[in-house]
Amino acid sequence: MQANAPLPSLAARRRALQQLAAGAAVLGLSGCGFALRKAPTFAFKTIRLVGSTGTPVASELRATLAVNGLQVVSGATPADVVLTVATDQRERIAVGQTAAGQVRELQLRTRFVFFLRTSTDKDLIENVELLVERDLSFTETAVLSKAAEEELLYRDMVSDIVQQVLRRLAAVKSL
Fold first, then answer.
1. What SS3 class is residue 54?
2. What is the pLDDT of residues 119-162, one digit of tens each?
3. Can you tell me where the transmembrane regions are (predicted)?
4. Cβ distance 124 to 117 under 8 Å?
5. Rg for the chain (alpha carbons), in Å?
6. Do the beta carbons of residue 74 and residue 51 sit within 8 Å?
7. Are 154 and 109 in contact, with CB atoms under 8 Å apart?
8. Which residues are registered as beta bridge partners of 72?
9. CB atoms within 10 A of CB 142
10. pTM of the full predicted structure?
């Protein structure tokens, strides 16, 4: 370095440090095995849904399975596996009240119970109960907005359950 050379500005040094830190982060993540979640792969090609199939969770599950490459069959059409929806219910419970007895907090629950078998009745996934809960504050003055918020929370819970079911189905490695 020459004696007369100007020192790099503070901004240039900061930029160089940020680039160095970003490079170190990329190297660190690649070494730890981090990878983005990929689309699931299944050990079967066709699936039949039976049981409570007209519910919101079953409807979204059917659509999500089709999007992920599975053929969802109905009726007497043969399928590799049969997913039976034993329970799909929503619950709304008051968990907090004021001294005057007015509801201040609700707990929303979605309960989904299913099992998976081959067409020859071999159990692949035994009864699994998925329970998702969300808390919702409640005020009498904002009933319409709270109803809309409740519906959004239920939709979020349905999506959460469908993703959990998908991961469990993808964990089945052989029939």
1. coil
2. 888 999 999 999 999 998 877 777 788 888 889 999 999 999 99
3. none
4. yes
5. 25
6. no
7. no
8. 47
9. 12
10. 0.73
